[in-house]
Amino acid sequence: MTTIKDIAKTVGVSITTVSRALNGYSDVNEKTRNKIKQVAKDLHYSPNAVARSLVMNQTKTIGLLVSGLTRSGAKDNIVFDVLTGVNDYCGENDYDIVLFNTTTSKQKEKTYAQLCRERRVDGVIVQGIKKNDPYLIEIIENQIPCVLVDIPIEEDAVGYVTTDNINGILKAVDYLVSLGHQNIAMVNGHDQAFVSQERLKGYHAGLKKHQIPMREDWVVNGEFEEEAAEKVTQQLLTEDPSITALVCASDLMAFGAIHAAKKLGYEIPKDISVVGFDNIVLSSYVTPTLTTISQDTHKIGVEAAKLLIELLEKKDNRRSTLLPNELIVRETTAANRH
Amino acid sequence: MTTIKDIAKTVGVSITTVSRALNGYSDVNEKTRNKIKQVAKDLHYSPNAVARSLVMNQTKTIGLLVSGLTRSGAKDNIVFDVLTGVNDYCGENDYDIVLFNTTTSKQKEKTYAQLCRERRVDGVIVQGIKKNDPYLIEIIENQIPCVLVDIPIEEDAVGYVTTDNINGILKAVDYLVSLGHQNIAMVNGHDQAFVSQERLKGYHAGLKKHQIPMREDWVVNGEFEEEAAEKVTQQLLTEDPSITALVCASDLMAFGAIHAAKKLGYEIPKDISVVGFDNIVLSSYVTPTLTTISQDTHKIGVEAAKLLIELLEKKDNRRSTLLPNELIVRETTAANRH
DNA sequence: TTGTAAGCGTTATCAC
DNA sequence: GTGATAACGCTTACAA
After folding, report:
1. Which of B71, B101, B281 minimises the CB distance to A91?
2. What pLDDT, on the 0 to 100 scale, is given for residue B187?
3. Among residues 77-96 of chain A, which lie with CB inside 8 Å of chain B?
4. CA-based Rg of chain A, rounded to a whole angstrom?
């Protein structure tokens, strides 16, 4: 593999000159530069990023730490979408992405800091970890620049990007109320997710706004899983048949809820309205198509990468980005007929 | 950041000893080793993979070059699934993955070899490129170890993994024939995909096996896209209403085909049977659920990583892996009633 | 069992 | 404008 040494030898200059010529420094004769460039091309030279990283003490690489980088993540395409967003922005800005593997047994022993330091990534984007994940403490304690997805923490070296979860659910409640619904229950995720807290706040805010009394037992947790959501919804609906609408904290859970309702003999949306959250691909393919709060997951990725790179290059001192959500009305919601 | 130098200083030994102690060499006193290990821990030492890579001339990193690493890849979760498979196997074997960005304008200028050499990846897994992609020639010409997904090329340094496409379609045809279908048409992908060739072979083989005469005009190309498939299917079915079954080269195209059929007043599966290919998540969520040939895309990823690492470590001289496919019977196929 | 020293391919600091 | 030379953090002959 050709090195600047080889180029230096064939051109008859020092390696210093080659380095400077190739890196576009001004203090080098244009003729020598051209000769060097030509030889570099002839010899199929590629700069060795590893060597450069070593001396520059930066790798132009960011780590992507994803908790749900498993097969199951394929159902909602969220993880993938964020990844493509990160990839897009990084590509434009000459950063490479390395995937951190936290799922496999072997790597599980390594701490977050070890993972980062070993690969000498310049920064990290973290997605899908829970509030009680041990990594989270490490992230805050360490000085490694980091952007969290959906976890609102701001530190010197850490920021976050999330969507306006409160407002999202609020829009859903607004819409349901406008359809004449008053008995609106919520299928939330779990207590270890910040987004669940926020979405719950949105639910409360919505009820309050329309002066609908809150009922604690009308909020159930579906663990962000289709099956779990089905189960709790079935119970909820059995115990209280007066419920006419369901806001769910994810589309997958909405599917579970719908399934439960159908099993109980409900017709959708005639007997009960359901709105999801995420707007995953599935939601426009199922029958009936799902009314949902759309998150631009690709943009989450883009903004996360953007924020991180700004952090790295100290261009700005923003520490967070809040993206808007949008209500997508489809077929699982209808006027209340009770 | 702590280095072996720091450890050497505090323990009072040379850096050589530290290096050897930490890397588990036998020729080092157990007492010194323990002291060194302790100090390393105390000082929060992490080995610098960059420095190591430079001297070892290997990065323990493999590049993932994906053509469809874009938002659109979210519909079929294939790209993502393969990625998780690769990630799983690499994690177990201490390899990291770096994502090669080929979509963004900036990187597009770089050749395949440049991409690989610059990052000094040990090997590459390539997915989603077409037969006429300029990268392909480079891959063959270069000496960089590479495993291709769904492109059957074997060279000294390149191998591939794919599924048994011929047999997959054959199973579909077998099944349709067993349901009494004789007028079976095919919605294929496009000529630039090896899998399309194979699936076409499977279609031919299936017809031949059951002594059904081939009709060239009953094979149409849907470009692996839902909309395109819908269009060509509409035309096909309009021109020849005697067709009672459709084998499609992807689930997404099957959805397009179904849509076209419905528009023409067909009921599914009463009036026409449709079978897809891939078994993407969507196919079990749509109504009616899709009969399809299932590919274990996660396993494709695992096997690709496995094959590449074997190649890298010269453990074996296999150059390819063929995975079986499976027919998943769901609701879009029924007995022929014509 | 341990240490010395060379070298991996760069960039950066000087001096010329 | 250009060239020695040191440095980045590590591994690895070779020597002791």
Report:
1. B101
2. 98
3. 77, 79-81, 83-84, 87-88, 90-92, 94, 96
4. 26
Q: Which residue of B has its CA nearest to A102?
A: B91
Give the pLDDT mean for B176-192: 97
Could you report the per-residue pLDDT of B226-261, keeping only the tens digit for each? 999 999 999 999 999 999 999 999 999 999 999 999
Nearest of B95, B88, B27 to residue B58 by alpha carbon: B95
Question: CB-based contact (8 Å) between B68 and chain A?
Answer: no
Kindly determine whether residue A106 and residue B92, on different chains, have CB atoms separated by under 8 Å: yes
What residues contact A109, with CB distance under 8 A and at least 6 apart? Answer: none
Determine the 3-state secondary structure of B86 from DSSP: helix
Name the nearest CA neighbour of A236 among A253, A218, A262.
Answer: A218
Q: What is the mean pLDDT of chain A?
A: 94
- Look at phi and psi of residue A56 and say left if phi exceeds 0, alpha if psi is from -120 to 50, else beta: alpha
Structure tokens given for A148: 């969290």
| CA B68 – CA B77 distance, rounded (Å) | 11
Assess whether B4 (CB) lies less than 7 A from strand D. yes
Percent of chain A residues topping a pLDDT of 70: 98
Residue of chain A nearest B289, judged by CA positions? A286
In this model, does residue B107 exceed pLDDT 80? Answer: no
Q: Which helix (H) or strand (E) holds A160?
A: strand A158-163
Q: Strand B158-163 to strand B219-221: parallel, antiparallel, or no bridges (unpaired)?
A: unpaired
CA–CA distance, B69 with B64 (Å, rounded to integer): 10
Q: Distance from B329 to chain A by nearest Cα, in Å?
A: 19
- In chain B, count H helices and then E strands: 13, 12
Dihedral sign of CA atoms B166, B169, B175, B179 in order: negative
- Across the range B174-201, mean pLDDT stands at 97
* HSE-CB of A111 using CA atoms within 13 angstroms: 14
pLDDT value of residue A33: 96
pLDDT of residue A171: 98
Q: Is the CB of A27 under 7 A from strand C?
A: no
- Report CA-CA distances (Å) from A66 to A125, A135, B61, B122: 8, 11, 18, 23
Cβ separation B73–A59 shorter than 8 A: no
- Using the CB atom, is residue B48 less than 7 Å from strand C? no
Contacts of B101 in chain A (CB under 8 A): 87-88, 90-91, 96-97
pLDDT of residue A104: 63
Nearest CA-CA partner of A117 in A138, A103, A136: A138
Place B67 in a pLDDT band, splitting at 50, 70 and 90: confident
Instruction: Tell me how far apart the alpha carbons of residues B33 and B321 are, in angstroms, rounded to a whole number.
Output: 43
Taking 50 as the pLDDT cut, the residues of chain A under it are none
B50 touches strand C (CB under 7 A): no
Nearest CB neighbour to B101, from listed A90, A113, A118: A90
Pairing of strands A146-149, A158-163: parallel
User: Residue A108's pLDDT is what?
Assistant: 57
Spell out where chain B has E strands: 61-66, 96-100, 123-127, 146-149, 158-163, 184-188, 219-221, 245-248, 273-278, 291-294, 320-323, 326-328
CB contact under 8 A, B74 and A281: yes
Give the pLDDT confidence of B21-45 residue by residue, as tens digits. 999 999 899 999 999 999 999 999 9
Q: Which residues contact B11 (CB under 8 A, 6 or more apart)?
A: B18, B32, B35, B36, B39
Q: Are A64 and A86 in contact (CB under 8 A)?
A: yes
Give pTM, 2 decimals. Answer: 0.95
